[in-house]
Structures are given as structure tokens and as C-alpha cells.
């Protein structure tokens, strides 16, 4: 009877596998809820450690997303629309932070922007500005790790966009910049938004590069994941409360956006 | 003086294009050919979207593209308007913004561009659709917006790439007549790309047939339909072309005889041309029943076989060529000198102003 199956009915073998997939993700969350000290939750969430970490996480993830958009969209355009020697190498390098252990990324950032770093040293000598162990350090670490998610999403969106609209705009006298601004970006907007959401989500959960490059100073560089990790050692209830906040914030953003932009 | 003078040599994948094209001010030239012949590449080369490998493109004495001396004027600086296949209206802009886009890009400020765009909308009967997104427009409306958008920048040359291909058969006749009327208001040269001989006959003064990257025939509609140079042209353009005077829904033919046509308000009474595809003429041994209004007795002057089809030349009262399958010809036992009944439906007669 397999031939009579309609296209939208799932082959039976997929359903249990899909269920296993969902369960694998949901079960740890249920376990977390089961261990939650609901009575103490109000006190735990009012703790400055939690509020500081939440504020830092939201700010740094948001700024990292904005910075990623600023340079990531042009980068995606160059990778999608131009041909130059070594493009394959550049594409691989751009996606490297997705594969690299974030700790390695953080260490590399230190060698680049640290007080004795490749670029950090002349900047520090000239201006006294130091990127590591500051909020900007957190943002740099977030951007380093999260931007590739935006770049590959937007690049794919640009590749699948119909370039003939840009041709039409050119025959109407539009300059390249006008075409990019008024035709290319609006046409690729679903991909840009999807990329921004992925980038933000990745930045929010960033741990390794941040702790290596920006340290773990409460109120200055201690984001939610760092605070959770630290609390797991000392105060398990606080760690659970922090995790719940992180999950709640993530879901609040992902649920409305997932269906619309991340298809 | 020739407005457009182009010799296009271009290799693109499997396509090896080598054609010369010209168009005078006010003249409409149709480039007709099968898919893959290089028609769209011609549009892209003229518009500056694909640089040519050899030859030249000159418009009003200005060189736009000449690889020999490295001259290349980019698309955005060519005085050429393009109506693209599928129209390519910007999906996130209203009809008004689509038309204003070119004006705005060429330095007209936003308010003035909107005023001019509204004037175009008005002129093309689209005043009620100024704020509509392209997805809310019918095929015919979208085509008019595309035409207005191309004309708004006041080009010297207008390129139309398959302007009717996106329409279904029922709206096609109406939109074609409308397009013809709007195009006559444009004073520059026009190049029309199409694979449909009826479009070419109705919308152009002169035809250029392109097959496999080469021009195989050029001439007026009458030249080409009467003396098709290649098998493709014969198949495609082997269309009956008649002249007469339209009165109501009857056309009195110049060479004698009458044909009833589907009344169409877009064609005013007076001198008209008729195009009839040979395949739409039906032949019978006996007078057919039913109600086709155009039925007449004709004499077979000549038969010409081409593989499984037979072209039948009919004489008197109307000289026409019909085309039937070999099987049908065999069943009817067609032979020269024999009398047959011919019929054609009124809707199968394309009428246009002369």
C-alpha cells in the first residue's frame, strides 16, 4: 500500500525518530524545571549577580548582532556576488569560528587585541584603550563567534535571490549603491532577519571565547552563561534560576521569530 | 539616420551570437526566434547587462559598447528602457514607487518623481492602483506598470522582452491591442523580442528572425510570411496575412470575400490586417454542420507535404494556406483541383489596425 501514501503523510518510520529528537532536547529542560527551587526563585532572581549578568548578556548579544549586521551583510554580498582569487579560502575562513572551539577563538583574540597583541599593543600604547576584560571585549568575543551564522545565512539568501531585479534597477538608472540599498537588501530581508536571529541566539549563549578573552568579572564581563557555570560550583539553586532566565529570554525571542524567518 | 546601430558578437555557454540590428526613430523591430536562439541575450547586450565580445552598439551616434577600443557605457547611463519578461516589478514597492524609481535614480526629487509617476498611472488607466503592490495587479496591469516604468525615464530606445509571454491566452488579445496603442505614443525606436509571430506582426513594422545565434531573415511582415526563408520561419511565420476593412464584426477583404471576427472594442472600424494560423483552418469534404460563421467552398490549388503535416493552399474566394495532418489529408483524399469546405472560428482570426 506504500504507493497510495499521500505526500504530506509522514512515512511511519520518521515519526518515532522525530519524537526521539524532540525528547532529547526537551528532557533536560524538564529535569531542570523539576530541580527548580520555586519557593526561593524570587529571591534568587533579585540577586545583583543575576540582574547584572542578564543585563550584560542582553546588551552584548544585541550590540554583537548589530555589529555583525554592519559588516556581515556587506561581507555576505561580496562572497555571494563577486568572484576573486582566493574566494574559497575566504569563505572557509569566515566560517571557521563556527567549527573552532570558542576557547581557541578567545585565545586568538587575546593574541590579536590583548595588551601585548598584534593590534592591541599599538592601540594600547597610542590611546590607552584595552579591549580584553571589558564590556567591549565581551562584545568582540560574541561577534567573533556569532557573525559567521549571519554571514552564511545572508550569503545563501543572496545566492537564491533573483538578480534580474537588480538588472531591472540598473536599466532604470540606479547606481550600484542604490541597487544594494533599495533592491538587494529588501529582497534578501528574510535571510537578513533569519541570520540576525541566529547570530543573536549564538551570541547570547557564548561562553568559551568570552571567558578567555573578557574574563569573568561580575557586573563588567560576567554574562549569563558565565554566571551559570560559576554558580554550578557554589550555589546550584542560583545556577538553575539563571538557566531558567536564559531559557525564558531565548524562547521569548525565538518563538515569535522561528516560524516567520527561520524556515 | 539610424537611431540604433548594433553588431553584436557574443559567446555565452553554448550560445554563439552574431547578429546585426538597426532601428530608426519611431520604428518597431521584432526579433523573432525559437527559445535558446539568443533573443534575451540580445536584450541584455543592448541594455548593457552583458558586455559584447565583438562588434559595436551605437545609439543616436553615441557608442555604448565597442570592445575594440574599450568603450563601455554601463546600464545605468544608457538611455534605454527595458520591459522585462515577467516584468520584474519590484515586489516590495507600490506601482507608483516602481514607476518613480527610475526618475528618482536619475536625480528627480521624490515629490516630483511621484507627481510624474501619478501622471503615467493616469495615462495608462492605473490611477486606482497607485498604492497597489505588484502582487495585487493583474497581468495586464502589471505589464502597463512595467511599460510606464520603462518609459518614465524618457529613453531613446525601448526594449520589450517577451512582453506578452506572462499572460494567459484570454487576456493576451486584449493586452496586445492595448500595448500596441500605448507603444504608438512612444517616439523612440522599439525592439520587441518574441517567440510569437502574431505579437511580431501586430506590434512591429519589421521582423528580424534569429535562429541559433544568427539572423536567417529580415523584412516586413508581408515579405516574411509570403516567402519564409527557412523551415522554422515557414512553420512559425507561415501565417496567412490578409487586409481589409472592419465594420462591426465583419471584415470585407481587399481581395474579395468576407470574414467574421470576434468583435473587439480595442480595434476601431476601418483598415485592418488579419492574421490567421494555418492550423486553425479546418477542411471538410461536406459542408460542416454547427455554427462556425466563416464557412466557404474553396478549391485546392496546391499541396505541400512536410513530414507528418500537409500545407494546403486554397484559392477563391479567399486565398489562404491551411495546414492539416497527413492522416486528415489522406482521409479527406485531398488533391489539387478538388473542392473542399473550409471553416475558421471568428476567435481564431487576429485583427489589428493597419
Determine Rg of chain A (CA atoms, Å).
22 Å
Shape of chain A: globular
CATH architecture classification of the largest domain in chain B: 3-Layer(aba) Sandwich
CATH architecture grouping of the domain at 61-220 in chain A: Orthogonal Bundle
How much of the sequence lies in strands of chain B comes to 35-45%
Q: What is the CATH C level class of the largest domain in chain B, in words?
A: Alpha Beta
**In whole angstroms, how far apart are the ends of chain B?**
25 Å
List keywords for this structure.
heterodimer, A: 263 residues, mainly alpha, MetI-like fold, 13 helices, 76% helix, B: 354 residues, alpha+beta, Rossmann fold, OB fold (Dihydrolipoamide Acetyltransferase, E2P), six-stranded mixed sheet, five-stranded antiparallel sheet, 9 helices, 26% helix, 36% strand, globular
3D structure, described in words:
The complex is a heterodimer of chains A (263) and B (354). Chain A is built from 13 helices and no strands. With 263 residues, chain A is mostly helical. The longest helix of chain A is centred in the first third of the chain and has 34 residues. Chain B is α+β, with helices and mostly antiparallel strands. Chain B folds into two domains: 189 residues, 3-Layer(aba) Sandwich (Rossmann fold), CATH 3.40.50.300; 114 residues, OB fold (Dihydrolipoamide Acetyltransferase, E2P), CATH 2.40.50.100. In chain B, a hairpin with a 2-residue loop joins strand 12 and strand 13. In chain B, helix 2 packs across helix 3, helix 3 packs across helix 4 and helix 4 packs parallel to helix 5. The longest helix of chain B is centred in the middle third of the chain and has 16 residues. Chains A and B meet through helix 8 and helix 9 of A and strand 7 and helix 2 of B.
Summed up:
The complex is a heterodimer of chains A (263) and B (354). Chain A is 76% helix and 0% strand.
Helices and strands in order, then pairings?
The complex is a heterodimer of chains A (263) and B (354).
Chain A: H1 14-34, H2 41-46, H3 48-81, H4 87-99, H5 102-113, H6 120-127, H7 135-160, H8 164-171, H9 176-187, H10 189-204, H11 208-213, H12 224-234, H13 236-261
Helix pairs in contact in A: 3-7, 3-10, 3-12, 4-7, 5-7, 7-10, 8-9, 10-13, 12-13
Chain B: E1 2-12, E2 15-24, E3 28-32, H1 39-47, E4 54-59, E5 62-66, E6 71-72, E7 80-83, H2 95-105, H3 110-123, H4 139-152, E8 157-161, H5 169-184, E9 189-194, H6 197-203, E10 206-211, E11 214-219, H7 221-226, H8 231-237, E12 240-247, E13 250-253, E14 258-260, E15 270-276, E16 282-284, E17 294-306, E18 309-315, E19 320-325, H9 326-332, E20 339-344, E21 349-353
Parallel strand pairs in B: 3-9, 3-10, 7-8, 8-9
Antiparallel strand pairs in B: 1-2, 1-4, 4-5, 5-6, 10-11, 12-13, 12-15, 13-14, 15-21, 16-20, 17-18, 17-20, 18-19
Helix pairs in contact in B: 2-3, 2-4, 3-4, 4-5
